[in-house]
Amino acid sequence: MQSQEHLQKENKHLREKLEHLHSIIRLLKKHKFGSKSERYEDVSTEQMVFNEIEVESPKAIETEPISYTRKKKGRGKKKLIPSDILRGEVIIYLPKDQEVCPHDGTPLKQIGAVVNEKLKTIATRTSVVVYKRLKYACPCCDGHVAEAKVKSILPGTIVTPELLSFLIFSKFFQALPLYRLEELYHLQGIVLKRSTMARWLVQISQRLIPVWNILEEKVFSIGYVGIDATTVQVLKEEGREAKTKSTMCVRGSPELSIVLFDYDVSSGGGVAKRLVTGYKGALQANAHKGYGTLERHNLTLLGCMMHSRRRFYKAWLEAKKQPGIASEGLAMFKFLYDKEEAYKKMNSTPQERKKWRDKEIAPSMEAIKQWCEWKFKEVLPSSTIGNALSYFINEYDVLRGFLKDGRYEIDNGWVERVIKRFAIGRKNWLFYNTVEGAKSSSVLYSLVLTAKLNGKDPFKVMAEIFKKLTDAETIDDYEILAELLLTASNLQSCHKKEGALIL
Predict the structure, then answer these.
(1) Of 312, 309, 307, whose CA–CA distance to 379 is shortest?
(2) Tell me, what's the pLDDT at 166?
(3) In this predicted structure, what is the pLDDT of residue 319?
(4) How many structural domains does the chain have?
(5) Is the domain of 190 the same as that of 229?
(6) 480 in a structural domain
(7) Which residues of the chain fall below pLDDT 70?
(8) Same domain, yes or no, for 315 and 299?
(9) Which end of the chain has fewer CB atoms within 10 angstroms, the N or the C?
(10) Do residue 160 and residue 254 come from a single domain?
(11) CA-CA distance, 499 to 491, in Å (whole number)?
């Protein structure tokens, strides 16, 4: 017969397991039905964990406050509609019976007008461009006939630069699958099959590869690259089952606002090694096992504080958002991110940000590590909070890598936001039919999202590129096309250029 002590231990173990299962259910419900925002309600001053660290940690944190002026928020005046938007004027007249004074019957005289603007949108209108290529003949003989030529972006098709740009903008920026575009044209009485559109996109992506290559050279030349990946499914891939997951990798430069998508069948160290071959500089990523296998003599690996914070946030949700180790950890991350935001609001140079970080962030990071080591002894290593603490401890060297240079960001979030745009589209189209489709998408996603990150209208930029693409022959010609996607970068500011993705 089991002893009372044994039964109590078993009961405690089962209760802990039950609570763990309940926490998993809460997280799954939050993931499926709740907000995707990782918002954290701040703890009170009495709970600020840095107060505890200053008492318990061998090293105290000394900080100097940074002040900046915050603009007062409010409704204010409505923003005007841009002046370059086409306008049409509608004049509203008084009814005839109101055009006289009600007191003495004198006809009213116009003295001005009250003007207001309303926005009008009309569903996509398609037009046809009729090309008449004139023919000429010699009047003296019948032996010579000349015909005017026209350069076509995809010879033998009905494609125009504007049509291609619209398809690319709709699919790769607005996440509309081709079957919906097929329906859109059908409503206008136009038969344009999705298979035809898919073929055009594959063909044009191949012609844009030189532009993609130039963007890759620019990213590698800057010496600071971020990398991340997500999964994608390709149905018709030789030697692989349709349900097998492949990888869409994203590399890029937060300083130049260039992003590069790259399709690969694997998800391990092989693809990561291929994508950074020949590159020397800083590489920022999460703690994916594939990045850990990279050769270190040419690379400075930087970690992602966002991934570390996310583990504490998960533990905080499991704890039902109650005060505890997870909330204390999130308070510390909030302290770090508030400092980083302050540096940007001051429009600090990378050199200035490096000095501020050395003074404020570096000692704080060391204190957090000591706090994690101290708290790790109090929790189950296999628990969610145990995982959060061990992640920070084990990845500490790369997590603090951003302190080496004021150019580096505290996390890899800007790449994640770009991948989110891709993930939104994936929910609509679900999978690629062929490898060619996946590879062409990687090129087109790269160009469209790079244009947006640089504050440009992807539709207008791509249309302009296609108009000039027929004459592009040399590397200089393609360099000009690549520059159409970009705006000047201010490398002397840690506050990045406008045009970030709004999701």
Answers:
(1) 312
(2) 94
(3) 80
(4) 2
(5) yes
(6) yes
(7) 1-2, 16, 19-20, 22-23, 26-79, 236-237, 239, 242, 267-269, 287-297, 428-431, 495-503
(8) no
(9) N
(10) yes
(11) 16
In the numeric block, the tokens 């705006």 are attached to: 487
**What does the alpha-carbon distance between residue 49 and residue 36 come to, in Å, rounded to a whole number?**
26
Beta strand 224-236 with 281-284 is parallel
Q: What is the DSSP secondary structure assignment for residue 42, as one 8-state letter?
A: P
- The answer to whether residue 331 is domain-embedded is yes
Per-residue confidence (pLDDT) for residue 296, from 0 to 100: 65
- Please report whether residue 120 resides in a domain: no
Do 361 and 442 belong together in one domain? no
Q: What is the pLDDT of residue 46?
A: 41
Q: What is the pLDDT of residue 67?
A: 55
Q: Per-residue b/e over 220-255, b at no fewer than 16 CB within 10 Å?
A: bebebbbbbbbebebbebeeeeeeeebbbbbbbbbb
* 179 vs 193: CA distance, rounded Å: 8
> Considering only CA atoms, which of 413, 403, 320 is closest in space to residue 356?
403
pLDDT at 47 (0 to 100):
46
Read off the pLDDT of residues 442-463 as tens digits, 9 standing for 90 and up. 999 999 999 999 999 999 999 9
Crossing angle of the two packed helices 435-453 and 458-469, in degrees rounded to 10: 120
Phi and psi at residue 135, in whole multiples of 5°?
Answer: -110, 145
Rounded distance, CA 203 to CA 436, Å?
A: 10
Same domain, residue pair 179 and 246: yes
Which of 346, 380, 404 lies at the terminal end of a domain, its last residue?
A: 404
Q: 193 near 183, Cβ under 8 Å?
A: no
389 contact partners, CB below 8 Å, separation of at least 6: 325, 329, 372, 375, 376, 379
Domain boundary among 404, 433, 461: 404
Which residues span the domain enclosing 360?
305-404
CA 400 – CA 410 distance, rounded (Å)? 8
Long-range contacts of 182-186 (CB under 8 A, 24+ apart): 184/124, 185/126
Q: Quick one: pLDDT at residue 35? A: 59
Determine the pLDDT at residue 305: 92
The string of pLDDT tens digits covering residues 248-304 is: 889 989 999 999 998 887 766 677 778 888 888 999 988 665 666 666 667 888 999
Q: Give yes or no: residues 286 and 165 share one domain.
A: yes
Model pLDDT, residue 79: 66
Whether residue 93 lies inside any domain: the answer is no
Radius of gyration of the chain (CA): 30
* 417 and 449 together in one domain: yes
- Do 295 and 371 belong to one domain? no
| Tokens describing residue 411 | 């996390």
